[in-house]
């Protein structure tokens, strides 16, 4: 046999083996995932063992959180369900502590590649996966979110609430039913413009939302879709190439939103020197805190790209979550008049010189009203703005969570909307009862994920609670609030943020007139 013929035979053999391997390897992966992987023992639809299609479809149908909840309902007693080839959701208090909690073991769970889809011009506090970088960023700006500095932001809140109440007075005078959630969204847009960018958008006076609000929602949906893909940091780029009209519309919105944030931040920089407060000091708001923030070890400040990423994140976190929480509080207070009356009585005792709600309500006094804060917490328990699981990757060696072994590199998490209605933690879990928080158990507090949990929970929690409580307190003192349809039962629909599934309207009457 010639040298050439031997070479040809060997080449054919190698090619044949390559073809066989190409066919056999995917088949082996399928067999392994179906029958031999430790994840195969976790209940869930069979398709989730090999594909994220079901989760992607639920996301597109605006019901991903509901879909995960249904998986637990279909598997009673299960502490975990399979939601994808490498993703598992848990529904147990111990899972919250194991995945999100403090301590040496908890440190082994890192943020999953899902967060890379939300890094834009740079890493924000929300999107950074590096624990070291997150710790540095948090130390840099933590003082700007502390309770001690809330009073510096309060004048901006009071001014925005006053502008909002002028519009509410118009509705009250005309005795017109209107969509209160729509107006809460306008309020939070203008407020976050004030706090994050140094100026409001004028949407309250214009009675219509800013363009950016639509872009935020579409940009977030793009991030969620790309986060399902298995390409890590390349997820965003890969999804941007998908030629489907729906995907391209979301991608275009993401690009437009980032350009909006860039221009808004540039304007904030240009106006920075002109915005001087009492004593000649710069305007005190959240963005000023970010601009001035320094790494305590190196003295380094955030660059423009990083500040732009933080701006994008702030606008999403503050505006979307605050408005929907005030919406649910208003709805439930109207459905529970005895709780509403009790809060009004407490407000009148605290502020006897402001019975008509026309004066700014100082938060230093308002935060003594525990029932109002409990009403906020109870609304967030039933309707957390982000209902699905915030994913963390298991350590390389794997982890045992609630007695379930999960291999390394698997995205695990606890959906806030599911654990918030866990009947083993909360009695009558579907009932809105803020008084349950007056003697809350340790497990109840652990499973309350309205603001996240552990070291990565929302750094702006105190600010959100401040403006939410001030807004609701002002409305309750100023008006008698009625639902157009007292028998209304609201459900949820997922627009990234869990929102009401239908529009509803309320009627406002000035309380002095209502009493007469």
Automatic annotation (TrEMBL):
Cofactor: heme
Keywords, ordered alphabetically: Heme, Iron, Membrane, Metal-binding, Monooxygenase, Oxidoreductase, Transmembrane, Transmembrane helix
Listed transmembrane segments: 12-36
Entry-linked PROSITE patterns: CYTOCHROME_P450
Residues involved in heme binding: 458
Pfam family, one: p450
GO molecular function: heme binding; iron ion binding; monooxygenase activity; oxidoreductase activity, acting on paired donors, with incorporation or reduction of molecular oxygen
Gene3D superfamilies from the UniProt entry: Cytochrome P450 (1.10.630.10)
Domain of life where this protein originates: Eukaryota
Similarity field: Belongs to the cytochrome P450 family.
Protein name as annotated: Cytochrome P450 monooxygenase
Organism of derivation: Lachnellula suecica
């Amino acid at each position: 046999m010639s040298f050439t013929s031997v070479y040809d035979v060997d080449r054919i053999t190698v090619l044949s083996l390559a073809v066989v391997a190409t066919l056999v390897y995917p088949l082996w992966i399928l067999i392994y995932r179906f029958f031999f992987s430790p994840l195969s023992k976790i209940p869930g639809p069979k398709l989730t063992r090999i594909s994220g299609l079901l989760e992607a479809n639920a996301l597109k149908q605006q019901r991903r959180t509901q879909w995960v909840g249904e998986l637990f309902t279909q598997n009673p007693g299960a502490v975990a369900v399979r939601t994808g080839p490498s993703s598992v959701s848990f529904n147990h208090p111990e899972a919250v502590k194991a995945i999100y909690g403090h301590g040496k073991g908890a440190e082994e769970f890192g943020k999953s590649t899902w967060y890379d889809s939300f890094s834009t011009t740079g890493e924000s506090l929300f999107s950074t996966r590096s624990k070291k970088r997150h710790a540095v960023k948090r130390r840099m700006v933590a003082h700007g979110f502390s309770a001690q500095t809330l009073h510096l932001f309060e004048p901006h809140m009071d001014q925005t609430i006053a502008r909002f109440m002028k519009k509410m007075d118009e509705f009250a005078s005309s005795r017109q039913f209107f969509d209160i959630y729509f107006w809460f969204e306008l309020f939070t847009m203008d407020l976050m413009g004030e706090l994050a960018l140094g100026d409001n958008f004028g949407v309250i006076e214009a009675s219509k939302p800013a363009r950016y609000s639509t872009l935020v929602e579409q940009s977030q949906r793009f991030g969620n879709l790309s986060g399902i893909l298995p390409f890590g940091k390349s997820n965003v780029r890969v999804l941007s190439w998908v030629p489907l009209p729906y995907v391209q519309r979301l991608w275009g919105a993401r690009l437009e939103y980032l350009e909006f944030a860039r221009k808004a931040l540039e304007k904030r920089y240009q106006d920075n020197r002109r915005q001087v407060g009492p004593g000649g000091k710069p305007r005190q708001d959240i963005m000023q805190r970010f601009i001035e923030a320094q790494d305590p070890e190196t003295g380094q400040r955030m660059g423009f790209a990083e500040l732009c990423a933080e701006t994008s994140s702030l606008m999403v976190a503050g505006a979307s979550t605050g408005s929907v929480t005030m919406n649910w509080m208003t709805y439930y207070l109207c459905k529970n008049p005895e709780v509403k009356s009790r809060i009004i009585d407490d407000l009148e005792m605290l502020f006897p010189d402001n019975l008509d709600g026309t004066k700014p309500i100082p938060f230093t006094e308002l935060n003594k009203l525990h029932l109002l804060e409990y009403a906020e917490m109870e609304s967030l328990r039933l309707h957390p703005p982000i209902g699905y699981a915030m994913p963390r990757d298991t350590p390389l060696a794997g982890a045992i969570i609630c007695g379930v072994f999960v291999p390394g590199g698997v995205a695990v998490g606890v959906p806030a909307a599911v654990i918030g209605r866990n009947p083993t933690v909360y009695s009558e879990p579907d009932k809105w009862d803020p008084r349950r928080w007056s003697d809350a158990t340790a497990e109840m507090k652990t499973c309350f994920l309205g603001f996240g949990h552990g070291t990565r929970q929302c750094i702006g929690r105190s600010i959100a609670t401040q403006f939410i409580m001030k807004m609701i307190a002002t409305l309750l003192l100023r008006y008698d609030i009625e639902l157009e349809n007292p028998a209304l039962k609201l459900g949820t629909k997922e627009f990234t943020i869990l929102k009401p599934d239908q529009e509803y309207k309320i009627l406002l009457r000035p309380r002095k007139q209502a009493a007469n």
